[in-house]
Amino acid sequence: MTLKDIINKTFRIILPLSLGILLLWYVYRNQNIGEMMEIIRQGVRYDIILFSLIFGLAGNIFRAYRWSNLIDALGKRIQRSNAIYAVLGNYAINYVLPRLGELWRCGVTAKYEKVPFSKLLGTLFVDRIMDWIVVSVLMFCLYFFNIGFFNKFFADNPPKFIAMINAATHSWWTYIALTAFVSLIWFVLVKYKHVKIVQKARHLLGEVWEGVKSLLKTKHKTLFTVQTIMIWVCYFLYFYITFYAFDFTADLGLRIGLIAFAMSSISVAMPVQGGIGVWHFMVISTFVAFGVSKTDAGAFALIVYTVQTVWLILTGLVGIIALPIVNKTNRQ
User: Fold this and answer.
1) Integer distance in angstroms from the first to the last C-alpha of the chain?
2) Which are the contacts of 61, defined by CB distance < 8 A and separation ≥ 6?
3) Listed residue (202, 184, 60) closest to 131, CA to CA
């Protein structure tokens, strides 16, 4: 590995992490640290938080089984243990380099299961698209029944990226540039299909598309739907059960729990390790909007995020270590 490679990798790790830490400092800069530490020492039922971790693990296992079904539709039945360990390891690696975990998941599965990486990448697109659909539907339903809260939230906390997206979608130049880009890609793929590099690109896109079509090919669409529901039910319980570990959130109820969960889910899409800083901001702002003090909300976000992050990293490391061991045993 050259010095340039080391610098590039270090930069890709440090930049998003630095952004997350900066956001974390911004969120907690005016907090009463003394009161918060008192809550952390005496005001938390840690046994309840530890119990909630079971549901986070269960949600990731359901995700592994759902992904396995998509791969099965490609004509290759993979070992469920490999899928589970790969999905768990996926989350641990994302804490080092955001989104690299998804590529690692496909790469390690391709290595042990002999499935083309590009086809696995297509199934991963389906996996993430389903997540996007679920969160979008949840947000739409919650927004429809809680318009006042969301209007006030975004008025008090206007995210710059939403303003940029809004400006982009109202500009004709955006659509002109998008059309030109798509046309250029199509022209190159059709006009220069005899060129070797274009042939490779066409082959790669074809295999990715085969992976995307796995959802249509799967014979277990009902099972796929049930697994999708179970993933998000487990993720919600993973978050909501922690409400009962604190006196100030125990009585907030299911509606506020769903709103806070939806807001925290949005933060995970941000390009920082584990949504650090953004997750805290979303959860704290939501709680404060419903009458929880900033100190209490800050303590909740700090404790729950830290414990759940440690859990994801530990289970992820188990997955990363177990993969070569299990597959070596299988070969023998």
Assistant:
1) 33
2) 84, 87
3) 60
